[in-house]
Amino acid sequence: MGDREVIPVHAYGFFTVSSNLEVNEIVVYEYADYSKYYASIVKDLDRLNEELGRLAANMQSFLDAEEVVINGERVRPRVVGTSLGFRGDPEEPYVAFFVHFRGRPRRGLNYYENIYEEEVAEYPYEAYWVFPPEAVVESVECSGSAEIIEGRIVAIRVEEGERVVGYEKIIFRLP
């Protein structure tokens, strides 16, 4: 598969955080695939599984290069599943990655921190963090724009071409 065949056009990240700081993440990358590469492999289970395995390993290598910290302890996000689908057109595939990690909660202030390579966003993306009902998000530090919704949901938006500094921090309170 060449870079010209499958072009990333948008991404979403959905993070749900439990009261014991178990984080389940779904990252969805949307593509323009004018060569219909992904459509060509879905009918061949071996090729599909091989591609999904390659994609999962590639995503895992990106996660391994990041430094993810919860309350001062490094945690290791792990890809636990990968799925390929289409938005109704074989030229518009998406790949979903299912990721899991966990931290140790504290009563009172807690924080999530992520340090990664600085870059310029090649496509727009959003990340949504949903904390448990009893949590309160105190502050968000990130590239792009961040909004705290109803005190416990964080929406982060980054536009194509925007400089991403490679650092995120969310401070939140647990009872």
Provide structural commentary.
It is a single chain. This protein is mainly beta and 175 residues long. Helices cover 15% and strands 52% of the residues. A seven-stranded mixed β-sheet has the order 5-6-2-1-9-12-11, with helices on one face. Strands 4-3-7-14-10 form a five-stranded antiparallel β-sheet, covered by helices on one side. Strands 8-13 form a two-stranded antiparallel sheet. The mean pLDDT is 96. It is built from two helices and 14 strands, in the order ββααββββββββββββ.
Distance between the termini: 49 Å
**Number of strand elements:** 14
Spatial shape = globular
Point out poorly predicted stretches.
none
> What series of H and E elements makes up the topology?
EEHHEEEEEEEEEEEE
- Helical proportion, percent range: 10-25%
**Radius of gyration, rounded?**
17 Å
Structure classification = mainly beta
* Strand order across the largest sheet: 5-6-2-1-9-12-11
Average pLDDT reading: 96
